[in-house]
Design brief:
Blueprint (H helix, E strand, L loop, with lengths): L1 E8 L5 H7 L6 H9 L4 E8 L3 E8 L2 H16 L3 H5 L3 E4 L1 H11 L11 H16 L4 H20 L9 H13 L6 E5 L3 H13 L3 E5 L3 H10 L3 E2 L5 H7 L2 E4 L10 H8 L7 E5 L16 E4 L1 H10 L5 H48 L1 H4 L4 H29 L3 H14 L2
Parallel strand pairs: 5-6, 5-8, 6-7, 8-9, 9-10
Antiparallel strand pairs: 1-3, 1-4, 2-3
Helix pairs in contact: 5-7, 5-14, 6-7, 7-14, 8-9, 14-16, 14-17, 16-17
């Protein structure tokens, strides 16, 4: 059995294909159920964000597990399996652990050190628990991943500055408009990404923030948090006539704004420019809107390029976080190996105990004349001999757990004692 991590992200896959493979929250239950029924997967967790779609599984065979995940993603995206395979990366065992810990620590994000991913890893773990697709192996792995992510943010400065996609989106809009301060902004969506965007807009000094969402109560709640105003979706066109910046963050599977919709408003905006930042995956805004005069449309590719320019200052922190990830991978491997050798040690001691009691039974006639005190002394003597003989092998096996030497010692014990 192997832990496998199979998926694609903003670096391995063009946005047009990545958005087809991501799984909406409303579809996650069905996705987990489908993967859980695959031939070679026994435990499954799925992380699906605007930057990645990854399947973590406990697989009977790596290649069989890879094929199950590839075919699932292909079906979900409506692509041929080979089209999906061209963009997939795959890790197993220690490297799968390292990849997950790096993701949780923010090293694999579009915004290095982003804090949103840690919550997304935790939510994915909770969703798998709710759906019953996670067991002790992946449960322990994800618990350790969340601990690693917390440690990275506590012990280093990796999460300071721009540390989320929503912060980067507002910073990019600030750059393209010449300053958010005094601007009117409309945010569509009311999820975690929208919350982060609204907070960043307030810090940037936006004059007015409007929030539109399909759930009116969520729009009202989020708007109130920034002293903004909720806008019904059927009044979206009127709101777009007033705003300088539009940020879209929904989880919709289809476009919510066609190029024609935006173009029809252009004449009514008195030639004022409109900056649109689309951080949704799949995209909320028709890419053809880039061709409309006066409209600047920015998406996740633009955010990634913007972030890369300011990455140099975090290089030292990245190395510190990598050291934390390496240490936590070693600690996790040692813990898993220690759990794995515990049954072996128990079997070894049980085998020795069977030999001891069998020998006492064989000499029972010769020991029959002994009194209770002498019998107790023989019992203690034989137990002591067994314990002393097994003490050093037990200590060395536990001490080597998690390393190649531990595997060799464990295999030798199994062969020598027929365990």
């Amino acid at each position: 059995m192997s832990i496998v991590a199979i998926g694609c992200n903003h670096r391995s896959t063009p946005l047009a294909k990545l958005e087809r493979m991501t799984i909406a929250s409303d579809d996650m239950s069905k996705a987990l159920s489908g993967l859980g029924e695959a031939d070679h997967l026994s435990e499954v967790v799925v992380i699906s964000t605007c930057n990645r779609i990854e399947v973590y599984a406990f697989a009977e065979r790596f290649h069989g597990g890879y094929q199950d995940v590839r075919e699932f993603l292909a079906r979900h995206a409506g692509l041929a399996p080979e089209e999906v395979a061209d963009h997939l990366y795959a890790h197993h065992d220690a490297e799968a652990v390292r990849h997950l810990f790096s993701v949780a620590a923010g090293l694999d994000s579009a915004v290095v050190g982003e804090h949103e991913i840690l919550g997304q890893v935790r939510d994915s773990w909770e969703m798998a628990r709710t759906e019953g697709t996670i067991g002790s192996m992946l449960g322990g792995l994800f618990r350790h991943a969340v601990e690693t992510g917390k440690r990275a943010r506590t012990e280093t400065s990796i999460a300071r500055g721009i540390a989320s996609v929503s912060q980067a989106a507002v910073a990019l809009a600030d750059d393209r408009t010449g300053g958010i301060s005094g601007r009117t902004v409309l945010v569509i969506g009311a999820g975690e990404m929208a919350e982060g965007t609204v907070k960043s807009l307030a810090k940037a000094g936006a004059a007015e923030v409007m929030v539109a969402n399909r759930t009116w109560e969520r729009a009202v709640s989020l708007a109130a948090a920034c002293d903004g105003r909720a806008v019904p979706l059927d009044q979206l066109s009127e709101a777009l006539l007033r705003v300088d910046v539009l940020v879209t963050t929904t989880g919709a599977q289809d476009l919510i704004l066609e190029a024609a919709d935006i173009n029809s408003l252009a004449d009514q905006r008195d030639e004022r420019g409109l900056v649109i930042v689309d951080v949704a995956v799949p995209r909320d805004v028709d890419p053809a809107a880039r061709q409309i005069p006066g409209v600047t449309l920015l998406d996740m590719d633009d955010i990634g390029a913007f972030i890369d320019k300011g990455l140099e200052g975090r290089n030292n922190e990245v190395e510190s976080v990598r050291a934390i990830v390496d240490a936590e991978v070693d600690r996790y491997q040692a813990m898993v190996s220690a759990r794995e050798v515990a049954p072996l040690i128990s079997d070894l001691r049980l085998s020795a105990e069977h030999v001891r009691t069998a020998e006492l039974d064989r000499f029972s006639a010769k020991l029959a004349a002994l009194g209770p005190a002498e019998r107790e002394a023989v019992e203690a003597l034989t137990k002591g001999i067994v314990n002393k003989l097994l003490h050093e092998p037990t200590v060395r096996l536990k001490g080597a757990a998690g390393r190649a030497r531990g595997e060799r010692l464990a295999e030798s014990l199994r062969d020598l004692f027929d365990l």
